[in-house]
Each structure stands twice: as C-alpha cells, then as structure tokens.
Amino acid sequence: MVRPSLPALVIALLAVFGLALGAVAPRAACADDKPAYRVDDVSLVYLGNPRQFKKPCAVDADKVYRAIPEYREILEKNLTDRDARYHLLLRRASDKFSAALRAVAQEGGFDLAAGLGAVSATSAEVAPPAVVTDAVIGRLAG
After folding, report:
1. Residue 9 located in a structural domain
2. What is the CATH number of the domain that holds 122?
3. DSSP state of 122
4. pLDDT tens profile 49-101
5. Residue 48, phi-psi category: left (phi > 0), alpha (psi -120 to 50), beta (remainder)
6. Within its chain, how far is the Cα of 122 from the centroid?
7. What residues make up the domain containing 129?
C-alpha cells in the first residue's frame, strides 16, 4: 500500500476544506466568466473556434461569393457538380473567399468569422458582431 507524503496530504486537505468553506469559488460560478456571444449555428462558422472566441464578426457569404469571378462563371454557365470545370472554379472561389476573410479578420482582430445570424450577443448590453462583408469584398479586389 502506497502512503501519501505529509505535504501532499496537507495540500489535499486544505483544498477540500477551502472548497467546502467557499474560499475557492468554482470558475463556472463567477458571473464575470459569462461569454458575451454564443454561436447559434456552428455550420456557418468559417474561421475560428466556435467554443473559444471573444471577438466575432459576421459575413454575408452569398454576397461575397457573387463578387468572385469564378463563382459568377459557375452561375452564368449553369455548371453543376457533374461538370469538371465546376469543381475547379468552386475550389478557386473558395480559396479566394477564405483568404480574403482571413485577412480581414486578422486586420480587425476578430477571432471568429461566421455567416449572418450564426452568432448572437448573450445580452442586450453587448453589441452584435461586426459585419465585415464589404471589407471582404474590397479585399477580393485588391
């Protein structure tokens, strides 16, 4: 039988008694730890960790994609997923979307980028996420 050392036993007892007396509050009980935002639709998160973020932004992905020439070609030529050119163009459009969104998010200090309506404030005092659609479209051009 392994016996714990005296210092380890003292530390364990102090920890247990401290919790029992309320000297050490659990993290979840602190009101300051309440997140300012919540992710309502994880499938619309384009960049960042939906479980750990502090400063989100929102983007209208459809509007951005329609500003990408490769995506417009897909729409104009009515290409479908059965066409080889469709996959090539969609990949290029997705790469452009991701690069522009990543650059805008980094410049703005955003740690999460999601579609419109995917992230909401947890209280009325918190401003809604910034919408960066126009900045992303501007980044595509230059």
Report:
1. no
2. 3.30.910
3. S
4. 999 999 999 999 999 999 999 999 999 999 999 999 999 999 999 999 999 99
5. left
6. 15
7. 33-141
